[in-house]
Amino acid sequence: HAGSRRERLEISSNESATQIFFVPPHKLCQFLEEASSIFGESRCCVIAREMTKIHEEFWRGSLGEASQVFSTQQPRGEITLLIEGKANSVAEIPSDSQIEHHLKVLISNGHSLSTAVRLVAEGTSVKKKQVYALALKLSEKSIGDDEQKK
């Protein structure tokens, strides 16, 4: 089962959402070592013990720190491990000019403004509201260009 767990962890390491794992206390140390090698030692995590109960405890830090701390102490009770999602890198966020280019291409291919906005927002990490504002600016520019030609 270790191979399949490792595969699932590798898939989870690329998710941008926080990952939640229920880990038996006797396997926490091994799980943290594996997770820190896959997710990276600097990824933030929370180890919650006995959540919603009288003796609940929360430990916060990086996976590397957690691996060190819990290698010497084995917690008891129900353990829930939360690992921070993968951060979007700056390179993944398109510039305004790139967004405008995508909008122009989609509109020139016959898509309506609203459809082009929706498609660009779905295909990037940019909010629909921001794409729509750029689309309006773009359409105002093209209307202004048309009036100058007259």
Automatic annotation (TrEMBL):
Annotated GO MF terms: methyltransferase activity
Residue ranges of every copy of the RsmI HTH domain listed in the record: 95-138
Originating gene: LOC120254733
Listed name of the protein: Ribosomal RNA small subunit methyltransferase I-like
SUPFAM superfamilies per record: Tetrapyrrole methylase (SSF53790)
PANTHER family: RIBOSOMAL RNA SMALL SUBUNIT METHYLTRANSFERASE I
Entry-linked Pfam families: RsmI_C
